[in-house]
Amino acid sequence: MTFEMTRVVTEEDLDDLDHVNNVRYVQWIQDISKEHWQSYAPEALRNQAIWVVKQHLIEYKNSAKLGDTIRMSTYIEKSEGAISTRVVQMHDEQSKLPLLRSETEWCLLNAATLRPMRISEEIRSVFIDEPST
User: Fold this and answer.
1) Which of 4, 46, 64, 87 has CB atoms 3.0–4.6 Å from 20's, for a disulfide?
2) pTM flag (> 0.85)
3) Measured in whole angstroms, how far is the alpha carbon of residue 30 from the centre of its chain?
């Protein structure tokens, strides 16, 4: 299941070269990931589990500038054990130019013990597209 959202670049997002700062992109990767989880996972699941970043791999492709609208999309590429690999892609809404592609490994923790826990079928099913009818 792909989840999408947009952001408009503001002055606070820019670096010394007047491009979106790489740190801001990392924040947006985390923001869309969190929003995806919170939008689709039932409250009971959200209360039982916490996702933490294990690793980010980011490929920057083009620069975004002040006033640009950025379309972000994310989906789960794979899940194994306690680790889920999430892909985030960002494009300039007007030009359609790709801005970045990231793969982030997220580790699922038990909210009570803060220890890694296996990704259950219940959690996995939150992010699977419904079969078409």
Assistant:
1) 64
2) yes
3) 5
